[in-house]
From TrEMBL:
Residues 38-256 form the Amidase domain. InterPro entries: Amidase_dom (IPR023631), AS_sf (IPR036928). Coiled coil: none annotated. This is Amidase domain-containing protein. Gene3D superfamilies: Amidase signature (AS) domain. It holds the Pfam family Amidase. It comes from the Eukaryota.
Length: 447
């Protein structure tokens, strides 16, 4: 009740669980999740999320939705749970469920996982199907997993990875033929000889919380002691063009038409239209319909700025998207080419191929970054994978996490080294439920 992390429960959950128990008792075990419905798992319900994947309002409360209310952080209920997949991460943290799923366009799996002290895995766009998922950007949306242990998170990911004819992006995926991703897990011994790069100026300098930085640098020292090589200064060559020095941002770019904001505004207009066209129980068919609905029911939906504390800016995000009319013109395709280039071959891929002062090229296994600030921006723009592991908590009892970033389809590498780091650090702590009585909206994102 206090966390508001679950939006609705599956009324058939107990019946499904009884059937699963009966199957197991009869000797039929579908897999490690027997206990995605087809894998034998029991679907408990749906989590409370940032409304419309944080798309509707530029100034909002993290984890807030008009229907579900304010999702809260199990470690300190007055602070932000992270978004947009707030409830699924917090439900895992509070031991309400073993695993959960969330979607990420930019930071919506990594951020909540970090603030819930759980493992969060955001896969390459196309590894998991987005069919039936409320969309934001076809170029960046991906479904990821949460687990209290690394293995739980990977079992959950493994269950939903694969080709789906309803999502064309899954047709080009690369991965193990048998779909077994758990096989890549390793213990801390795998860190000996590993090479990790620190994009210091690109990412680390954005981590303003000094308390977090102390813990994160302690992790770096432990990795060195475990035999890993740490190379500082593995930067994204053109990061200043799209990454804000003040942290997470979609509005940074050479011009308004060369920003992530522009890409997502156009994508959302078209993607939400296609999504709504598949629904049979509503007359809402477009972003314009949604905007009109929020104005008509302003007292409960907060379409007008200042009506609801959770949506301070109303629905300015929707209005920005509607203004584009979804026009996929030459400016849109120029934006697409620019963002792909600057985030991929002249971004993450360049950082993973480091050239030393003597001209030697060093292959980096993965980039090591804080799970905060603008760390999620570049892999989100590129559609590349990222994983976060808990490493402790700060002075406000808010969890701290560290992440690995890789190139496209590098899930096996991130699983190998992510699980090894998790085994070394063992940084997860159980929730403390500090300020369990908190009812503040908006929640505090500064801690």
């Amino acid at each position: 009740m206090f966390l508001s992390s679950v939006l609705e429960f599956n009324p058939d959950a107990l019946l499904i669980a009884d059937r699963a128990d009966a199957e197991r008792a009869a000797g039929t075990i579908r897999g490690p999740l027997h206990a995605s419905a087809r894998k034998g798992a029991v679907l408990i319900g749906k989590g409370t999320l940032d409304e419309w994947a944080s798309m509707r309002s530029s100034s909002k409360s993290s984890g807030y939705a008009a229907r579900g209310g304010q999702s809260r952080n199990a470690y300190n209920l007055s602070t932000a749970p992270g978004g947009s997949s707030s409830g699924p991460a917090q439900a895992v943290a509070a031991n309400m469920v073993a695993i959960s799923y969330g979607t990420e366009t930019d930071g919506s799996v990594i951020g909540p996982a970090r603030r819930a002290s759980v493992v969060g895995f955001k896969p390459t766009v196309g590894l998991t199907s987005r069919a039936g998922v409320l969309p934001e950007s076809v170029h960046q949306d991906t479904v990821g997993s949460f687990g209290r242990t690394f293995k739980d998170a990977i079992y959950a990911l493994e269950a939903i990875a694969g080709i789906d004819p309803r999502d064309n992006y899954t047709m080009i995926q690369e991965g193990p033929q048998d779909g077994n991703y758990v096989q890549y897990m390793a213990d801390k011994g795998a860190l000996k000889g590993a090479v990790f790069g620190l994009p210091w100026n690109s990412v680390w300098n954005q981590t303003a919380n000094i308390g977090d930085m102390v813990q994160l640098l302690a992790v770096v020292d432990k990795l060195k002691a475990a035999g890993a090589t740490i190379i500082n200064g593995t930067e994204f060559p053109r990061y200043k063009e799209v990454l804000s020095p003040s942290g997470w941002s979609w509005s940074t770019g050479p011009s308004p038409l060369l920003t992530v904001d522009y890409r997502v505004d156009v994508d959302f207009y078209n993607n939400i239209r296609d999504y709504l066209a598949e629904l049979e129980n509503t007359n809402i068919r477009s972003i314009e319909d949604i905007i009109a609905y929020n104005y008509e029911y302003n007292s409960i939906e907060g379409g007008i700025p200042g009506t609801l504390a959770g949506f301070k800016s109303g629905q300015d995000g929707f209005l920005s998207s509607a203004a584009t009319k979804g026009e996929m013109n030459s400016s849109y395709w120029e934006n697409e080419a620019y963002l792909n280039t600057i985030s991929r071959e002249e971004g993450i891929d360049a950082a993973l191929s480091y050239t030393s002062d003597n001209g030697t090229t060093i292959k980096i296994d993965a980039l090591l970054v804080p799970s905060a600030g603008g760390a999620t921006n570049m892999p989100a723009i590129a559609g590349y994978p990222m994983v976060t592991m808990p490493v402790g908590h700060n002075a406000h009892s808010v969890p701290v996490g560290i992440s690995l970033i890789g190139t496209a389809w590098s899930e096996p590498t991130l699983i190998k080294y992510g699980s090894a780091i998790d085994d070394l650090i063992r940084g997860r702590e159980t929730p403390r439920f500090i300020e369990w009585w908190a009812r503040n909206i908006p929640v505090d994102y500064s801690k």
